[in-house]
Amino acid sequence: VGFISEDEYLEITGITREQSGEYECSASNDVAAPVVQRVKVTVNYPPYISDAKSTGVPVGQKGILMCEASAVPSADFQWYKDDKRLAEGQKGLKVENKAFFSRLTFFNVSEQDYGNYTCVASNQLGNTNASMILYGVRHCGCVWASVQSKGLAAGFHRLALADAKEKRGLGTSILSQHHSSL
Questions:
Q1: Which biological process annotations from GO are given for this protein (predicted)?
Q2: What are phi and psi of 31, to 5 degrees?
Q3: Rounded to 10 degrees, what is the CA torsion of 26, 29, 32, 34?
Q4: Do the beta carbons of residue 28 and residue 44 sit within 8 Å?
Q5: Looking at residue 4, what is its pLDDT?
Q6: What separation in angstroms does the CA of 157 have from each of 136, 140, 146?
């Protein structure tokens, strides 16, 4: 997509963030070689949260809530549980803020950690928020088995959830997870 203007300036009305980028101006005449100048156009916009999902974690395990936001300038993030702001360094929690996401990590989930969490993303142009729930899930009766694949040190692990479902004739659920130990 290009813009053509016979004038010495280019006016883009109703600009959107998708129109951010590098633009090139070329001036030419019959006397000399064309002169080309590039200019970078940055479109500032308020935060937009693109991803925030609720997560289920068993008691005693590590849990993570993520909040992804697009904004220019970059968003600042804050986390709340119910209406109480969470602070960095709070016991058992870690807040990691980057330019386009924030991660709230629970190192040892307890019953008290379950509940509604809100991620607030803000910059000079505005703010937005998204709510997500950290909820409890039960441990399953898991069986881990390691198998070798073509002599490589790659382990394939199968998690067989052979619980009451199988006893009720509902079948066994199988989840596969692959990791390489090379």
A1: cell adhesion
A2: -95, -45
A3: 10
A4: no
A5: 67
A6: 24, 16, 5
pLDDT score recorded for residue 2: 64
Beta 144-149 vs 152-161: how paired, if at all?
A: antiparallel
In this predicted model, what pLDDT tens digit does every residue of 13-39 receive, in sequence order?
888 989 899 988 888 888 888 888 899
Average pLDDT over residues 79-84: 93
Say if residues 106 and 92 touch (Cβ distance below 8 Å). Answer: yes
Task: Please report the DSSP string for 139-165 in residue order.
Answer: PP---EEEEEETTEEEEEEEEEE-SHH
Residue 143 burial by CB count (10 A; 0-12/13-18/19+): exposed, middle or buried?
exposed
Q: Are residues 56 and 65 in contact, defined by beta-carbon separation less than 8 angstroms?
A: no
Question: Residues near 28 by Cβ (< 8 Å), separated by ≥ 6?
Answer: 34, 35
DSSP states of 56-78: EE-TTS-EEEEEEEEEESPPEEE
Of 150, 151, 119, nearest in space to 132 by CA:
119
